[in-house]
Structure formats: C-alpha cells, structure tokens
Amino acid sequence: MLADTLLLIRLYWTIDRRADGGTRRSSKIILILGVLLVVVLSGALGVFAASLTKDTSIIRIRAEILPGLLLTVVLFGVIFVGFSQALQALYLSDDLEKLLVAPVRSRAVMTAKLLSRMPTTISVLLLATIPALIGFGIGVGSGPLYYILGVLLILVTPLFGISLGALIAIFLVRVLPARRLNEWVGAASIVIGLLLSLLFYLPTLFGGDKQALDAKSLAAVEGFINHIGDLPLPSIWAGRALVAFGQGQMTASAIGALITYLAITVGLFLVVILLADRLYLSGWLRMQSSGAASQDIGEQPGVFGRNSLDFILGYKDWLLRIRDPRMLATLFTAVIMVGFALFMMLRPGDDGSSLFGISEALEGDGVNLLSTGVIISGLIYFAGYLAFTRLAVTSLSIERSAFYILKTAPISASQLLRAKTFGIFLPYAALATISMFVTLFIMKFSLIWMPFGLLVILIMGYGLFSFLVSLGFLYPNFEWEDPRRMSNRKSSIPSLVGSFGYSIVAIIIVMATYLVANETPSLAIPAVIMGLALLAGGTWFFVQWCTNRVEKAWPRIGAN
C-alpha cells in the first residue's frame, strides 16, 4: 500500500508541476513575494506575542497561550476546507474511474487523493502559523525541542480536518448527490468569508469615552486571551506541553498531552484510511449508478444551479409576484406593515422607556437574556415572519390552474415542497443576513455572539417557512381572482398555532444555550455546538414531519 500511495502522490505532483509550467514569470515572482510577506508578518506576530508574556507589557498573557491558539486555529480551520477537499478529491475527480479499476489498492487511492493536493487555504494556514510559532519560541527563549515538536505538530494538525472532512463527505454522499453537496459548500464558504471579514471591524464597534473604554478593552482582551488557555481542547493541552518541553520540563502530563494530540490527528487519519475505504467505494459506486439512472430525465445541477428545480420554480414564483401589479402591491403592503410594526415596538414610550432601554436596565452581574443582540435577532426573525408568512402559505395557490401541470409532471411532492420552501427561504436568508450585518455596525452588540444569532435566525426561518409552505399545500386555493384572497381561511389558525409553537420551543433551546454559555464560560463552545445541533436536529425532524404530511395528502390535493 505504501508503494502505491507514494507512486500516486509523485504522479500528482508531476502533473501539478507541468500545469504550473505555463505560469508567467511575473506571477511566480508575485507569489514568492506574497509567501515571503506572510512569513515575515507571521514571524513578527510571534515575536510580538512573546513580548506580551513579560511583566512590562500593556497586557500580560501566559506563555502557553499562543502555541495552543495556533494549533487550535489550524485544527478547526481545516475542517471545512478538509471536507471540501475530500468531496472534490474522492468523488468529483475525473480520474477516479481509471484509478479504481487499476492494479492499485483503493486505500492507496484514497490516501493519495487526500494528501497529494493540499488546498491553498491549508498551505496559507501552515505558512501563517509555523513562522509565528518559531518567532514566539525565539522571543521566550525556548529550547530546541520546542521547535522540533512544534513544527511537527503544526504539520500533522491538518490531518484532523482532512480525516473528519473525509468521514463527513463519505456519509453525506450516501444521502445527497456529490455535486449538490459541492454547491452547498461553495455557498457556505461565501457566508463564512463574510462572517470572518467582520473581525477586521472589531475596533469600530466600540464607542463612548475613549480613555475609559481603552482601559476596559485592554482588560477584557487580556482576560479573554488568558481564558483561551483554560479551554478543554487537546490543541490547548498540546500548546501547553510545547512550552513545557521548551523549558526542559518533560512531565508526564506534557507527554500525555502530546500523545493525545497525535491520536486525534495522525491516529484519526490512519483509522479513516484503514476502515473507511469500503464505505467510500460503496458510496462512489452508488453515486455512479444513481447518476446513470438519472441521465434519462436529464442531469440535476443542484439547488443553486441555474437549471435546477428549486431555482426555476422559485424564480418563476417571484416573476409572477413582481409582474402582476396586484401581487406587487400586496408585497409593498407587507413591507409597509413590517416597518410599521417594528416602529411601534421600538419607539420610546411617554416616559422615555424603550425596548433597548429595558435591555440596558437589565445589564448587571447576571446574564442578560434581553441583551441588544438577542433583541435584534428576535426582531429580524419576527420581521421575516411578518413579511414572508403570506407568501409561504400561498406558495402553491399561486399556481392556480397550472398546478395540475405540476402534479402530472415527474416531480414528487417532497421535491415540489422543497423547491417552494427555498423560493421563500433564500430571500429571507439574504435579507436577514444583510439586516444582521447592518445592525451590527449601528447598534454595536456582541461580535462574538453575532454568528450564533445569525445561524439561529436561519435555522428557525427554514423550519418556520417549511411548516407554512406545507400548510399551503394542505389548504390550497386555486380558484382565487384577487391576490388578497389567495390564502385559504382554513390555514389561518393552524399557521398561527404551529408557528408560535415551533418558535417557542426553538427559543427555549436557544436561550438555554445562551444562558449556559454565559454562566459557565469554560463550557461555552460545547454548549453552543450542542445547542445549535439540538436546534438543527429538532428543525430537521419538524421539516420531515411536514414533508410526510404533504406526501400523504398529495393524491387528494386539487382533487375537489
């Protein structure tokens, strides 16, 4: 197996070198200068971080913080990239059919695919962290063992993300088409890039008395950075062990931390290679058979493809709403009503009190469950509910007599329900994201909790509109003449009860997560992950329940 793996890796590197042979000399020079700039800046950052460990610095951090932080950044930063790389390499490459029938072991193919072509993001992470690690070691005067083990740990750290990404890809491809997953990855990368770009605007989020705020900010930054060293993460333990080895302290706890870290990186990679190859092969064969079967009715390019069912139906529905002046007037009325409702909720009372004033009054030593960020997230979700509820409930009724064409088409009820839901959810998601970013700079609420609030809004929005669209399927009205009377009255009470019931349960999960994370900072990351997982899992079951109801009622819809 080792010989086959090395052979494939060498061949891939040869192909890459030949592909780079046509690159202009100016492009190569720019690339070299960019790499040198990243290395210099990274090393300078490491030396600067070393100066912060001294008593004379404006903020003082513990010596083990930076190595652990660098390992953590690479450890978790590569997970998303590793999933994308595994999906591209294992399922979307054009040479897989030849390799899998060649006299080469499948494990060698899988290993070479995962290792031979590291994405640019992983290379940048390594270039940005290794010089910083070395510069920090020089600044604090670490011994040679620190540099040897530090560089080794940084180099093996991407194996965790690649292994976990490969596992996720192998299991998801058994459920969803690989090209569909690839489109979702591209969409998610855009959102993640936007969220990360907000970190550069962190200083602009502070206001008030500058001198007093500077002192508070420095104290908060110092406490936050030092708190990182207390997180129960193997990467933090490994960083602490590196500093101990650099100081000549080869304790049992330091050795155990290094062994643990190697187990979750190198060990996990070996386990995936040795045990997951059969799952990979069966998933790949299933993908090929399903792809061949679907060629009769045409390739399905996915949710975000221009010719996909979701895009076509959603685009068609919005064209109907915009081209019909009556429907356009209904949309305009909904926007005005949302603005009026928000104005009434936010305007100060006769005594000068307001919703945000109540939030400020509740600030204290305890956890404020009505903080500015919580209120803004709730208002965005509520505004989306007001603006898109009618559109969701009437998403099937808008078809009128064309519904019978859809019903006789080779489209299942679940496919049509999903397409109609995405036609409502995607505009809601775009407006909610823009609203969150705009209010972040205006209201200056917590940047740390902003991604959590945005994810909550999107997950709850998808569950809400899936339910409302399913009600539109169960209670359609195809005989309307006036768009204002498009909805069926029978759906009014179920939509109100179901929407508020789902929202209340989801809010309880979210607020419990927020409370636990603030009351116990050491459990903040696990609490947020568990809370989001519980919310997403509950929403998924709720959506499946709605889909099953529609599928059971599908033969009777439009029969009367």
Would you mind describing this structure in some detail?
With 560 residues, the protein is mainly α. It folds into 2 domains: 238 residues, no CATH class; 256 residues, no CATH class.
Q: Could you give a short account of the major beta sheet?
A: none
**Secondary-structure element pattern, one letter each:** HHHHHHHHHHHHHHHHHHHHHH
Helix percentage range: over 70%
How many alpha or pi helices?
A: 22
Provide the low-confidence segments as ranges: 202-213, 291-305
Shape: globular
Q: What is the alpha-carbon Rg in Å?
A: 27 Å
Mean pLDDT: 75
Proportion of β residues?
Answer: under 5%
Q: How many domains in all?
A: 2
The count of β-strands is: 0
Separation of termini?
65 Å
In short:
The chain has 560 residues and is mainly α. The chain is built from 22 helices and no strands.
Features:
2 domains; 560 residues; globular; mainly alpha
Task: Explain the layout of strands and helices.
Blueprint: H1 2-20, H2 25-51, H3 65-91, H4 96-101, H5 106-116, H6 120-140, H7 144-156, H8 158-173, H9 178-197, H10 210-228, H11 234-246, H12 252-275, H13 277-293, H14 309-323, H15 325-346, H16 355-361, H17 372-393, H18 403-408, H19 413-443, H20 450-474, H21 492-519, H22 524-553
Helix pairs in contact: 1-5, 2-6, 3-6, 3-8, 3-9, 3-11, 6-7, 7-11, 8-12, 11-12, 14-15, 14-19, 15-17, 17-19, 17-20, 19-20, 20-21, 20-22, 21-22
